[in-house]
Structures are given as structure tokens and as C-alpha cells.
Amino acid sequence: MHRIRTFTIVLWIMAAVPVLPVYANQDDYLKAVQAYADTMLEKARDTYGSEPSPLFASALNRETCAPFSGDALAAIENIPRETWGIRSHDRMLTGGNPMHDQNLYQILYCLTSVTGEQRYADEADKTLKWFFMHCQSPQTGLMAWGEHIGWDFNTETIIDKPAGTTHEFFRPWILWDQSYKLAPAACADFAKGLWEHQIGDQTTGNFSRHAAWDKHGPGKNSEYPRHGGFYIATWAQAYRHTKDPIYLKAIETVLDYFDGRRSPKTGALPAESAKRSEGTIIWPESNLSLAIDLWNSAKFVPEALAQKMLQSAAASDRTYLRLAHDLGPDGKGFVKSANTHTLEPLSYSDPWATGYGEDTEATLSLRCLLRYHQIHDEGYKKLILGAAERYIESEPFIEFPVYPGTLGDVILHMLGAYELSGDRKFLERAEHFAALADQLFLKDSSIPRATSKHDHYEAITRGDTLMMSLLQLWAVKNKTEFNPPLVYCDR
Quick check: 18 pLDDT over 70? Predict the structure, then answer.
């Protein structure tokens, strides 16, 4: 995701919004999630064009559960970015994008475990297998997914949109285990294509987060650490499943490039080397995301490389925890950007900020929670709980568009704080935000609205994250553990 802050809608703290209790008992959360899954499975699939597929539509009329066309498509297509913070060239209005639906897949797999109904997992498998077998570029091996491209239901190729054929990760892909079971050759080809066609300089490791899906066209100097982490995780899984040493070379090349760019004064890893920042700015959340992927991936590679990966992750921890985060009741928030060589803060987070390139404090806390679960550092725990306290009294300003994923993040953050502290006020707050989410997004349909102000469904605003948070809330209330667990991937 592009992290230059060109536009922000800020949802400031306001007086408490009265919320009626809409979930009468804890099983209602599961019922809501199951209704969402059933509707998506039964009504939101690709039945269009010359080759119907099991892919899910990324944009839907919530009354008909059909994609938009004609004047209706033009109407939602022309929603100004200024009114809701979504860029037009990131939207998938005529097709699907599995990377935008990743939490939906997690929900389907968990529902099979919870309900015993195999159809949920079977349908997730069917969709993923079809995607990997049909939506891969024969020229590069890259998949038609991510931040800018998707698969068009009408033309049976990538969606024709202003972003052209730009390949860029939107989230990490955390479903590699299942993907390799379903389409091992396609997954390995993607990993190789990521090395051959995404990395601009295979000698140094310099790359751009943007590449061309349909031809060789890698760039350089837009080497965001979080994207590097996504690549390393991809290559580690490829090595795990194939033992091809090319993937170890790819990991080590990019890892050495990053570590060579760390500030000798602070150990900070610059956001990028493009002229607009010239290596003088650090985006801490990007470094933290890289550390998470390095740690998760180290167990799949030989010991010497694994140790380099763990040491690099630890270097990012030291920098992140040295930053002047200020999460007291009247504090400034998480440090969102800082000077690479002094760590002087340049910007801070807001509990309810939303829009392109922005993260709420809940989103940042959930990254800290992922890292805490890896290394159990009390510094991360302190940040998570400090940020959680700031949500005890604050509410979103609902006069502006609120995304379903935003409340999903906050619910998951409250559940994480409850897990770490045992304080029931965080669980109660999670239930409060679940009730608010029901009022804002689910009152007239089983699939969530795109925003509190827009009545259609659109995957880019992360309705799947909201529904996953309700499933996790049900699990906590029922003392149920999922195997495999639901994984937060909105980073």
C-alpha cells in the first residue's frame, strides 16, 4: 500500500454513541457470521461472462447480491475519493480479488470446524484452486490479485482499470499451506515470478512494490519493508514445499539489502529510497510488519539464514520500542513516521483515522499483538494495553463514512487486550463495538455495507475483517479455540 499521506478523513473522538443491545446471546455472533458466509456462497459468486467461476464478487448490490452494471455501476464508480478515502484505481467493481477476501476464506475454514459442515471448507478450496489455476500470468507467474488488479467476470482477464496491470500485494497472503495443497505448481511459479519479475536488481535486492503482471517490468527504489516481508514469507513457503535453493537466494538477497540500509545511528530501516523521502523517513508499522514475517518464516529455512532473519527482526524491535509512542489518556498516539537517524517523531496516529494509507491505533496495536505473541516482549504488551484504554470512552464520529473493517480492527484489539489483561472491560467494549457494527453495517442484510454512508458491499473496506472479528468474539465468549487459529492479516 502506498504510504505517502495524500488524503485523510479523520474521525475524531466524540461523546459516546448510544447503542441498543442487538445480540441477545453469544451465539448470535456465530449466526451473523454464518449468515454472511451462506449469502456469499449462494449469491455472490461469478456466474457471468463466458466462463463462470467460484470467485466472489468484490462489489455487490446488497439487495440483489449481484454485481453492478450500467447506470448503477456508474453511480458507485463515481463516488468521489474525497468523500470516503478510497482511490478509484484500487476498486474491483466488475470482478473479484482473493487477496481482498482473505478473511472470508479464514471464516469458511473455521465454520467447517465449528459447525461440522464440510461444505464451507470445500467451497473455500474450490475458489482458491480455481483462482490459482486460471488467474496466473503465463508471462510472469504473478497472480491477478492485490492492491490494484483483480479478475474481471465479464472479460475473463484482469480488470481494465486506471492502475493498468500493476501487481502489488494488498495484504500478506497467509493461506499458503492450503494453496500449496490445492495448486502446488502454480504457487511455486508465483514465488519464482516474484523473484524474477518483482525484484528490480537481483544483485543488490533493490525493488519496487509495483511490477507488471503481464510482462517483465520490475522497478527499484520503492522497497517498502512490509512488502519485502510479504515476499520473504512467500519464498520461505516455496522453499518449504519445493526445497529449491533459488528461494533461499531470494530471501537472503532482499534481507541483506534491508539490513545494509539500516541507520548506523538508530538501526532504523528507511521507508524507501525514492527521492520524495531519500531514506530520511521511517514508517515504524512497515518495519514491524517485516519483523513479523521474518520471524514466521525463519522456521522454514536452514539454520544460518534463520538466525540472520531473527536478528534482523530483533533489530526492528529495538527501534520500534525506542520510539516516543505516547499512549496515555491524552497522549499523541503511536509514532507513525519519524526521522531515520534521530527517531524524532514526524507524525502520530489517531484512534479513528481512516482513508488510504492510514491506520487506526487498533490496527497498529494488532501488529504489536502479532509480534508480542512471537517474542512476549513486555514493551509491546504495554503499547497494546495503553492503546486499548483509549478506546474505552471513545467512539467513531459517524457523520463521516466509517469502514466495517475499522470496527473489526477495534473489536479484535479489545479481544487482544482482554486476553493479555483478563480485564472484562475490554471484552465488554468488544461487545459494544459489535453492537455498533450491527447497527451501522448489518441491519438490512447479512453482508455488511461498504461504509456507514454507502449501502452497497465492497470488499476493499474489509467487511470480511468485521465478520471475522465477530467470529473471534463468539469464540472468546464460548471459550473455543480454532485450529488453525484466525490470523490477523490487515497489515
Answer: no
Pairing of strands 457-458, 345-348: unpaired
Give percent of the chain above pLDDT 70: 95
Please say if the pLDDT value at position 419 is more than 60: yes
Which 8-state DSSP code applies to residue 95?
Answer: E
pLDDT of residue 27: 84
Alpha-carbon distance 247 to 265, whole Å? 32
Q: What is the pLDDT of residue 357?
A: 79
Report the distance separating Cα 316 and Cα 318, nearest Å.
5
pLDDT digits (tens, 9 = 90+) for 276-311: 877 799 999 999 999 999 999 999 999 999 999 999
If you ran DSSP here, which 8-state letter would residue 463 be given? H
Residue with cell string 456508474? 74
Q: Is 211 helix (H, G, I), strand (E, B) or coil?
A: strand
User: Which residue did the predictor score with more confidence, 348 or 22?
Assistant: 348
Bridge partners of 146, per DSSP, are 168
- Contact at 8 Å (CB) between 241 and 180? yes
Please give the Cα distance from 158 to 317 (Å, whole number): 39
SS3 content of the chain, % helix, strand, coil (to 5): 50, 10, 45
Cα dist. 271→262, 316, 364 in Å? 10, 13, 16
Beta-strand relationship, 45-46 and 95-96? unpaired
Asked if 365 and 387 count as a contact pair (C-beta separation under 8 A), the reply is yes
C-alpha cell at 320: 520500534
Residues 6 or more apart from 261 whose CB is under 8 A from it? 269, 270, 273, 279
Provide the pLDDT for residue 14. 40
**What single-letter DSSP state applies at residue 207?**
-
Q: Which amino acid is at 397?
A: F
Query: Residue 22 has what pLDDT?
Result: 67
Distances (CA, A) of 372 to 285, 292, 384: 14, 10, 9
Helices (H), 261-352: 284-298, 303-322
Place of cell 463516488: 79
For the residues of 346-367, what is the DSSP string, one character each?
Answer: EEE-BTT-BSTT--BHHHHHHH
| Pairing relationship of beta strands 59-60 and 457-458 according to DSSP bridges | antiparallel
Q: What is the number of other CB atoms lying within 10 angstroms of the CB of residue 311? A: 13
Closest CA to 252 of 266, 268, 280, 232: 232
CA distance 55 to 153: 9
Nearest to 105 by CA among 363, 437, 486, 456: 486
My answer on whether omega of the bond before 484 falls inside 30° of 0, hence cis, is yes
What residue has cell string 541483506? 256
The average confidence (pLDDT) of the chain is: 94
